[in-house]
Amino acid sequence: MRRAAPALRLLAAPTAGLAAALAIAPGQAPVALHVYLAVSSALVLGWLVVLLARTLRAPQEAPFASALVRSSPAASAPVQQLERVEREVTLARQNAWDCHRRLRATLRAVAGGLLAERRMVDLDRDAERAAAELGPEAWGLLRPDRPPPADRHAAGIGRDELDRVLASLERLAWS
């Protein structure tokens, strides 16, 4: 009944016209009835076509409108995290201070988590075992008592050294 209500409203005007035609010219009832049926059929058929078209195709949003919709923060969090790490690596390669303060902090967090989970070793409390697990190059960068660089603007970590430190962390992760 709910879907038929618009169709019944469509038929209100032709029905009123039929009633008026019958009241004015009762002798022309067959002609008035034929006109009523033709008009009513056309209106109902048009209504059914519109209804069918709406159900068969979903309304599509314009590409411009969909581009304006912001993505959820949860979806962009890994991307932002990756961009942050990329910045840290870039800065750490350029100067020693950023290597010591930024990248080293991130790598210490990773190494600390891996050592604790995989080897039951605390990076800060069990220095001997942590040094043995990490290897000399990674330990040299990640040890808790590493002093800050004397020259903040000196060259940062080299690509080869960073590759070896990351290889050491990967070895912990996969073994």
Task: Please tell me about this protein's structure.
- The protein is built from nine helices and no strands.
- 74% of the residues lie in helices and 0% in strands.
- It has two domains: 52 residues, no CATH class; 98 residues, no CATH class.
- Helix 7 crosses helix 8.
- It is rod-shaped and about 115 Å long.
Describe the largest sheet. Answer: none
Alpha-carbon distance between the two ends: 68 Å
Give the quaternary arrangement of the chains: single chain
Q: Give the total of beta strands.
A: 0
Helix-strand pattern, N to C? Answer: HHHHHHHHH
Low-confidence stretches: none
Strand content: under 5%
Helix proportion: over 70%
> Tell me, what's the shape?
rod-shaped
Number of helices: 9
Helix/strand-derived category reads mainly alpha
Tally of distinct domains? 2
Features:
175 residues, mainly alpha, 2 domains, 9 helices, 0% strand, rod-shaped
Task: Give the SSE layout.
Layout: H1 5-10, H2 12-24, H3 29-56, H4 63-68, H5 73-94, H6 96-119, H7 127-134, H8 136-142, H9 159-174
Summarize the structure.
The chain has 9 helices and no strands. The chain is an all-alpha fold.
